[in-house]
Amino acid sequence: MGVSSVGMSEERYRHLTYDLTMALARTLAKLNPDMTICYVSGMGTDSSEKGRVMWARVKGKTENDLLRLPFRGAYLFRPGFIRPTKGLKHTHWFYRVLDPLFPLLNRLFRVRC
Description:
Radius of gyration: 16 Å
CATH topology of the largest domain: Rossmann fold
Number of domains: 2
Structural class: mainly alpha
Order of helices and strands: HEHEHH
Helix content: 40-55%
CATH class of the largest domain: Alpha Beta
CATH superfamily of the largest domain: NAD(P)-binding Rossmann-like Domain
Strand content: 5-15%
Low-confidence stretches: none
Largest sheet: 2 strands, parallel
Distance between the termini: 22 Å
Number of helices: 4
Strand order of the largest sheet: 1-2
């Protein structure tokens, strides 16, 4: 759960990324503490919760608080980039501009986008 922080106030971003995620996670942990939770965060997330970058602090707090819940297991993933699915209509202009460059980036950096 969560959204891009672009153009968003810290209060709104925190509500959509932290508050809603934690409300769902607390409910799930109460209903079934034997489950495992997986949370997709982001490269650069700030586990100290004290950095300058707003989104990184919020994601760090979310990760930290998820780990404190009584789940059987919790896995946190911090991808550096997620390429939108082909045909997705509402993507940020950034992805549409970079899309033709992915084959070149794959060859240069040996990554799979």
